[in-house]
Amino acid sequence: MSMNERYEPQSIESRWQKRWEEAGTFRAGRRPQAEPRYVLEMFPYPSGAMHMGHARVYTIGDALARWLRMRGHDVLHPIGFDALGLPAENAAIKDGRHPAERTAENIVSFRAEMKRLGYAFDWEREVVTADPSYYRWNQWFFVKMLEKGIVYRRQGKANWCTGCLTVIANEQVVEDDKCERCGSPVVEKVIPEWAFRITAYADQLLAGLDGLTAWPDRITTMQRNWIGKSTGAEVDFAVQGSAEKIKVFTTRVDTIFGCTYVVLAPEHPLTAAVTRPERKAEVDAFVARMRKTEAAERTGEGAPKEGVFTGAFAVNPYTGEAVPVWIANFVLAEYGTGAVMSVPAHDQRDFEFARKYGLPIRTVIQPAAGDRTPPGEQLGAATTEDGVTDASGAFSGLPSAAARERLSAHAAQGGFGGPTVRWHLRDWGFSRQRYWGTPIPIIYCPDHGAVPVPVEQLPVKLPPQAIITGTGEPPLAKVPEFVETTCPICAKPSRRETETMDTFVDSAWYYARYLSPKDEAQPFDPALARRWLPIDVYVGGPEHAVMHLLYFRFWHRVMHELGLTAEPEPCKRLVTQGIVNGPDGRKMSKRWGNVVQPGYMVDKFGADTVRLFMLFAAPPEKDIDWSDEQVDGLFRFLSRVWRLFVSRQGCFEAPEAALAQAAGPYLELRRRTHRTIKKVTEGMEADLKFNTGIAALMELVNELQGLEPAADPERAAVREALTALAALLGPFAPHVAEELWHEVVGAAARDRLLADEPWPAFDPALCVADTVSIAVQVNGKLRGEVSAPAAAGEAEVRALAEADEKVKGYLAGKTVKKVVFVPKRLVNFVVAG
RNA sequence: GGCCCUCUGGCGAAACGGUAAACGCGCUCGACUCAAAAUCGAGUGGGGCAACCCCCCGUCCCGGUUCGAGUCCGGGGAGGGCCACCA
Hints:
alpha+beta
């Protein structure tokens, strides 16, 4: 075959895409004897067209998947679409089209773009979450989890738009608590909702993080903070003149002797009960005002502390002292017990509040060393550090940590509290008053209440004839054919649940569905799960650190309990890729006019150049700016590679046996070739160092370019280099690599695909140079450089160094106290005098 | 306020505690050309010097550990991210 003189990606890429597809090259499960590897990228939400961010994730995952394949693994590299969700529904409301129609179109466009980028996906496993054959299993999990008590019904808070008369999502609440669509005020409303008891897994989810050593620290840290375990104590304060008790939660029970008042959240159930009649009007007004204020504004840090006295007093069980009970905006009903003991001397919030309302401030912690803390009234701010208890009765003089233990134990003995643990993590409310989601499979029977749809009757399908207006009751409630049904137990006329599930449910377990995407009997095949799970490498954006990645881990644990998976964690290694910004360094956005479309760039430069750019610009986790100049440079690089193959075609006829005779620059070339293989291989193994691997390939090309092989040994060395180059390019620029490989193997092996070839091996003996340049330092400063045999020992190198004229000058008249020798790198003379 | 990350040439970046700036971009000069583009070759951290010999300075700042620090430790600064009155 004769090659085109010029590199024209447009003429070769689609041809190889077709070949891979016809050959089923990337189908998983075709190497049953090989070690499996599961490489997954977060599936896309197909709103609009594919953007550069998508091109980057899939390029990273693809390079890895292709490399593992060449290393001989059976690789599962699937793709699907996260198709249900709010944006599609909102778009539908806007342009009057059905979300199913619109989503289907977007998927068609995404699929085409992905194929044009040459991703090695196993397309036969494609999963679309909007498909009833997928969401049916969401419903199945719902029923199973309901049986196990993991799903339950609770009173939840929702954003209620006073104009649309419907619940809206957080994303639809714009500044000043207005509805994004109609501009009406949004208020908080308490409505019943379905929730997952993820808090029951808080301990496991936290402990599991310790095992995720191949996850970025920042992600596990964020999860840790989100789960937010805090160890403290609960203490009951009896309300004077009442049978009620106020239970407070504190992490600083060591400061309890400094408690000078107690505060309840406005929503606290005891608020009304403890309030004295003479204070009722004021308290009611305050609570009502707080109800109307949006949470962020009321409890945000900027918000001034505000409160009102209830007239009641509560008794500190440690001191017997009665302290006033207040209601304040800064106490959150949903954290802890919704009530706090206030110790203004040692808590900044309590301090500010006490100052504002003239409440006493009492110092009860002294520093372990140094000056004593002045009495509370003289403090300028709270002292929040641990120390030693003071003015704390029988508990005085204890270090804070010990005091916390003793005081907690004392509460437990006295029956008025004890040590406890609280979590920041809340249960996951997943009811949505929306159309474009998985219907919740519940039927409300007048006699039997909420009855789950029997699993054999699943899926409960979304009715196609939805009326989506974004106002009034949930869309499904407006479809009588959907709502009206009969009770599965007694067959009485009943109504279906009209809420749908949060889309995070869809993405919580999709990776498992890829194992047997057409399974009709179960969500996935547990036998296949044993082979493929956990995921070896999961690539996605760090913005999913806490929501998706926590739900994903939670769901996996539930599946593990259901006996579906062997391991409790879904994924061994997580790679979070950075953003692709516009050429101006700003986030790509229509607003800035800096959006660069991957499809357009593929048209212009070909997929391989776009892929190389993504991999070469920076390590995967860093943000990058799109750069037209860099892209030009990478296109030039591929063109140079192409011309090299064209101009050195003669080398492919050189006899293999001549290789051993390569000498001089051609022996150096062979060394470069083997070092390059080593460098690329080790970069992939270690840390997905695509950028330095590609740099090594460029160096090899630069060296090749300077050579004019003539004799057989020279041509053989060039052939060896070009063969390696084509293979090493395979994971990064797969189309041009296939084309060049085809040139390497010749017409005789026309059926072979590079993607099926083994990854090249390097000869360690050829990776070391025989002569190395060694730095000579005197007292750690570079003073010279000598060339020595790689195997040279200290004595030899020292002699060479001492013979160096420059070094001599620095050593003259000095006493050498010590010599540090690092083989192949440097020698350092430590001198005095 | 808490937690985390980052800081290296004009730019993107490299660098097991061991010759800082590989590789790419940009720029300069040269070759080819009538000319340009493309391509190829050379150079390109700052300062000093007749000199491309050589010397000094250089990885945000200050200090420490070390024969030796971009890298490790302590303190500070700037930028970014996430959470945010979590008791």
